[in-house]
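== Sequence entry ==
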Amino acid sequence: MENAKSMDPKKFKRILVGVDDSPDAQLAFRYAMNRAKTDNAELVICSILESDNMNIYQALSKDYVHGQREDLYKHLQRYQDLAERVGLSQVKIVIGEGDPGETIVKSIIPAVDPDLLVVGSLSKSGVRKYFGSQAAYMAKYSPVSVMIVR
């Protein structure tokens, strides 16, 4: 039997990282960025525009939703700039809309086709943050490997 230390660890080709403003998401981003650099992998930074944080008038206003999406895109560009400054050459941004866990698993992963999803253990919004249910949902239903960072 071959010694485990001599085996080459799996290298990832495309890493998807979900970010929001929580401290755990910041750690997840740092882990994903460093892993992408080590593996010479593409890094895809994703965030979800959560419609349950909007009131009915905001949700119905195309201008409001467009403004929220534009603000989120600018925020993600700061993550992209940081990743590029540390030497990553393949960095993309993806924005989804809806429930974070479900949107990432059912829409973002099939579209991006990563081989690793990296997320923080806590969500910054609502009651869910106390139970980490978004991370638990993604770990349970994701078709790719999931790294939950805390």
